[in-house]
Every structure is written in C-alpha cells, then in structure tokens.
Input
Amino acid sequence: MHHHGYQWAGPKDRFDNEALRRPPPSDPPPAGSRPELILRHREVAAEFPTSDLPPLETAYWLVKPRSLVRGTWDEAKEAAAWLGERLSEYTPRFASERDRDTTRLARLVNAAAEQLHSGADVSYGFYLERPSYLSLAVVTCSPNHSKPELACPMR
Output
C-alpha cells in the first residue's frame, strides 16, 4: 500500500462545475436521446479523465493524468506531513479565520495520518481569498479501499 498526493487551487466557479468532477455514466444515453444529452455525455466522458479538477469521489484521482500526482509515499505519516506542509503554505490565504487556526490544522494532519494508515483516503477543501478554492487529497493506492478496480497511476 502507498499514497498519492493531489492538489488543486483555482477559481471557485470552476470548482463548482460538478459535471466535470464526476465520472460519466458507464452506459451512454440510449439511441434516440436528445442530441444535446448525447453531446454532453461525450464531452464529460472525454474531459473527466483529463481534467485537473478534483473529482467528487476522492478515489477517482487515480484515473487522472499521472502528472497531477504531487507526491507518492509508502508511509501514512509522510503523506500526512505533505498535507501539513500544504496547509501551512496556504494558511495565510484561507478566507475563514477558523481555518487559519493552527491547532485545528494540526488536528487535521494527525487525523489524516490515522485515516491513511487504516487505508482510507483523505480529502480537505478550503475557501481562499478572491473567491478561490483549495483542494488537497491523499489517495491510498494498490488497492484503493473504496474503488479497488482503479489502477495505480504510477505503476
């Protein structure tokens, strides 16, 4: 078992485009469906695996391009430390004073280490200034507990 880290920061309105953050249904629309429905399915099927947007389900980071992997660790504590470094880097930009509380952030990092050690994924999100959004995720791989059918992007 190992862990991959992912990071995305960008405009909140882009993050809110949920259609590009969820995998398309495995079956295309039935024959005779409205042309715009068929076109939309094709668009999402083509864009979801290549988009840098965070997926709604954390495990789906594994189908994204390997270039989006920001780090790989064998140990949960190392992956959680990476999360802590990213949180420290962005803390001054957090929109909420509550999110800037260093004690709370330390608890998040400790909780992440425990979750990752148990084989679970971790995903955190924070509103930043100028309405922007930060998404941080660490996905457990080989196999992923929630989606074992998803292949490791690095192997």
Remarks:
- The beta strands are 2-11, 71-73, 122-128, 132-141.
- The helical segments are 12-15, 35-47, 76-90, 102-117.
- The chain is about 30% helix and 20% strand.
- The two ends are 12 Å apart (CA to CA).
